[in-house]
Amino acid sequence: MAVKKPAKGGAPKDKSGNVRLSHLAKPLSLAVALAAVGYAAYASSRTPAREREPARPASRARGAAEPEASAHVVHPWRRRMADVRMTMPECLAKQRKLTHIPAIWPGFHALCVESVSPSELVVLALVRGDDSVRTVRGRSVLDVLDALKPLLESDYGQDDPTIVDSVYAYPPHAWELFSPVGEHITHAQVQLSAGDLACVYEGGQFIWPGWEIGHVTNIEVPVVDASTREEGWRVVPITTVSLRPLAFELSGFLTDEECAFIIEYASKRLFPSPLAHMDSSNRKEEDVRTSTQTFMTRGGSRVILNLEHRAHNLTRLPYELGESIQVVKYQKGQKYGAHRDFFSANDYHQQPAMLASVEYGARNRLATLFWYVSSVHDGGETFFPRALNASGVEYNPWNGDHEDCYRGLAVKPIKGNAVLFYSLLPNGHLDERSLHGGCKPRGADDVVKWGANQWIWNQPQRHHGKTFPRKDRPARPASSSRPGCEDASPDCAAWAATGECSRNPSYMLASCRASCGHC
Ligand SMILES: O=C(O)CCC(=O)C(=O)O
Ligand SMILES: [Fe+2]
């Protein structure tokens, strides 16, 4: 990942002289830049975030990335709607099961297709409130989604404090329809048949339905043979370990060769892990993240690209929504206290660049795929202290202790495995139950836990750091909305995040006043 520095006295330019942030697709530029300095939203004002010296972006670190990145090939996924066809009674049974799981998934609705003809799509919706089945018809998927809105939109109460929406107004997410294996359904006549199960996501992005704790879904993912370089497919079983947060344990996601590659790549480029700085952060608090880390240049080599495609293929989330993979190393006693991977707009009232990057609540990190690149036999688990058990209650009610590793659910670090969890709910709101952390590796002095994060967002960045009007809800004014305290470039936040305010003050303090906090 290359975040170009603004030249002394000027902003970074590409070959054609345009000011640019990086060589990556524009839509992700800020997200990727945020990732480059290890932005991570920390969970509470009780144990606030710590700020460290901004780190060097990976591409400027010693040792160039492998030069042989192949062309961007999109791998279609193998399991499609046609493989999960069912009869109407089977569909109705599954619809009931998904509608009444013992954990709240606001914004998720299972439908059964009653009939589909060239002129009409007819679906059966199950309304949670009165447990009634309603018939809904329309000419197209869009018509049906519109007709479902008044019926389904508020079928859960709004008073759960573990479901958080931004206090700012933002454009509503478009509802979308997906097959239970992640196929985006846009053309009913081509894609659907009577008896099909189809799922509505109010947040507009596919999330694997977990069904129940212990449920296993087998997903074929693209792999490349290390010696022959032949492309093929491998089945990765994903086991539901929690319904809230929705979390899965994946076995055999990485090969031994890939783990060795990641460790070798990262070892030369490590720097201390920083944290995002929220409004409430107090730098005097004890360290909450003591690991070291680095980033793998997005698409920077054949191996990296293959790993990224595997992650996107498995989650069914578009490649364009992914950040650079972050590799993290913990030695004995190092840890990452409980935190959330999303950025809550409500934590950044004083930080216009952050508010703009999450578009006031419209966009955020949706999924985390955390890979275990080495095994740790004692400690080193990923823990979820606010997870719900099979009956829909916390394992051992959370006491607010961000360091208490063994209170909720813990996933063991086994080399090659991974944990997939969602920070957003199907309606696009923040899931406070996604709170999680990394426990300390214990035992021998030379114990090491290697892991890697593939974060995937729910939306591309459409506004490139610019703010947009907020009409229906009162927005709290951010400090830099003061006249004279503005950024001249939408890339200022990313440059500031990589340390340019101190490295290149003559340009930055004049042109990025808000992001450098220079007003
Ligand atoms: O180390 C782990 O198990 C989790 C790490 C993590 O949550 C993160 O890096 O954001
Ligand atoms: Fe995390």
TrEMBL record:
The lineage of its organism: Eukaryota, Haptista, Haptophyta, Pavlovophyceae, Pavlovales. SMART domains: P4Hc (SM00702), ShKT (SM00254). Its main location: membrane. GO terms for molecular function: iron ion binding; L-ascorbic acid binding; procollagen-proline 4-dioxygenase activity. It comes from the Eukaryota. Its cofactor is L-ascorbate. It is found in: Endomembrane system; Membrane. It is a single-pass membrane protein. Residues 321-460 form the Fe2OG dioxygenase domain. Residues 485-519 form the ShKT domain. This is Procollagen-proline 4-dioxygenase. One of its GO terms (cellular component) is endoplasmic reticulum. InterPro entries: Oxoglu/Fe-dep_dioxygenase_dom, P4HA-like, Pro_4_hyd_alph, Pro_4_hyd_alph_FE2OG_OXY, ShKT_dom. Keywords: Dioxygenase, Iron, Membrane, Metal-binding, Oxidoreductase, Transmembrane, Transmembrane helix. Residues 46-72, 461-490 are annotated as: Disordered. The keyword Kinase does not apply. The keyword Cell membrane does not apply. Residues 56-71 have a biased composition (Low complexity).
